[in-house]
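Bit of a strange request maybe. I'm writing a small parser for structure token strings and I need a real example to test against, not something I typed by hand. Could someone generate the tokens for this chain?
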Amino acid sequence: MLNIENLTTQTINYKLLETISNSLTTKEIDITICDNKTIQKYNSEYRGVNKATDVLSFPIISKFESMPLGSIIISIDKVIEKSDELGHTRDEELALLFIHGVLHLLGFDHEVDSGEMRERERELINKFNLPKSLIIRTESL
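Reply from user aminoacidic:
Good idea to test on real output. This should exercise your parser:
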């Protein structure tokens, strides 16, 4: 189950995000869509980084199966910026960031793993016919 709080005026493709969520977990996920100012506050408070970012993930570690998987916060400003820059839709960019966030909730960490998160992202990008993700984009740099 996906609980979406859209704090913006942008239209969100809830069905696409729900489909992605259901393909990865049966657990509940909370997602907040906000602006750069709001995500910057969260990034500063929880990570000590005082700047806006595209996506933040907050897993809930629990032994109880009924507990939610966690929360994801996505900046719509970053979604708009990146989708315009790369020439794909906002729904696609939002889906990419959502996949990235959910994988973090599931325990993947591209900063320390040996490519497992990148590979799982590739699989999901292909499954949902999405453009290359943020991690895959960095491979060509």
